[in-house]
Design goal:
Elements lengths: L2 E2 L14 E3 L11 E3 L5 H11 L2 E5 L5 H15 L3 H5 L8 E7 L4 E11 L7 H8 L3 H29 L8 H5 L6 E7 L10 E8 L5 E6 L5 E4 L5 E3 L7 E5 L1 H6 L9 E6 L4 E8 L6 E2 L17 E2 H8 L16
Parallel strand pairs: 3-4
Antiparallel strand pairs: 1-2, 2-8, 4-12, 5-6, 6-7, 7-14, 8-13, 9-12, 9-14, 10-11, 10-13, 15-16
This protein binds gibberellin A4.
Length: 332
Amino acid sequence: MVVLSQPVALDNHISVIPTYKPVPVLTSHSIPVVDLTHPEAKTLIVKACEEFGFFKVVNHGVCPDLMTRLEQEAVGFFALPQSLKNQAGPPEPYGYGSKRIGPNGDVGWIEYILLNANPQLSSAKTSAVFSQSPLIFREAVEEYMKEVKEVSCKVLEMITEGLGIEPRDSLSKMVRDEKSDSCLRLNHYPTAEEEAEKMVKLGFGEHTDPQIISVLRSNNTSGLQICMKDGSWVAVPPDHSSFFINVGDALQVMTNGRFKSVKHKVLADTRKSRVSMIYFGGPTLSQKITPLPSLVPKQEDWLYKEFTWSQYKSSAYKSKLGDYRLGLFERQ
Ligand code: GA4
């Protein structure tokens, strides 16, 4: 259980960032760990997606140096003077953001960069992210996105195989599409300067990810918690050499609710900064999101109305972080 305590005023515009007293949460002994090279990996992934919508992957094949390099470059960006970082913001939704999350009043103890994975869609804001930093930042971002996209596609192919769906690229082809609406988020949960502010704060409020799949990597600072089916929260111990995979809303729909899009949040411990990078694998804007016909052949069994990713995305940007976004698309 999490206990809300004194709100902290941050500036003229942001009234409150909820502060938390550290309270015991369950340990994570039950979070599944999947070795991607194990012969039974696909079965374990399907089970983890059904039970938790979340799991950790090891033996993923991404070079640890690349993960460290991107982390260092991100840390370098966040260490720039505020005035320079602000030139890449506010996010619309791409670019640099501080404390505000999304356009509808959500706030957190966080600063971040949101980048579209499709370089052709790069905006003035995203170019500004790289204008203050050496070229190696942009190169690390591009190389990392390529590698992590491969991890997403490998996992999605294991999911289709585990579910017995043909063809095996039914899901991965959506993320592989060169026009896929995927993105990368680099998050920095800063330390607090004032002694009085050094308390656990809400870094990123509870929410589900809208896309198909999310692949998260963080430094060795804790903070991520996931919500279990019974509503209890479990703290996920950090592991900087592994990835954590989330089922997103679109995959919940495509499996007709068999996989659950996992609710999660981040509590920021302001004595130790946390840096995370998350790749959100999404489909193209025009992709129709429906239960996969080979999994649920009869339309009358579909739990959701048909919608496009573009429709879902616009409705997500009208919502607050913690809203249940799929509610609008459920069939009566
Ligand atoms: C949550 C998952 C991703 O971080 C994100 C977020 C997006 C944003 O920060 O711009 C959203 C949020 C996320 C869900 C609801 C809307 C959109 C903020 C917000 C209030 C990039 C995404 O795709 O959806």
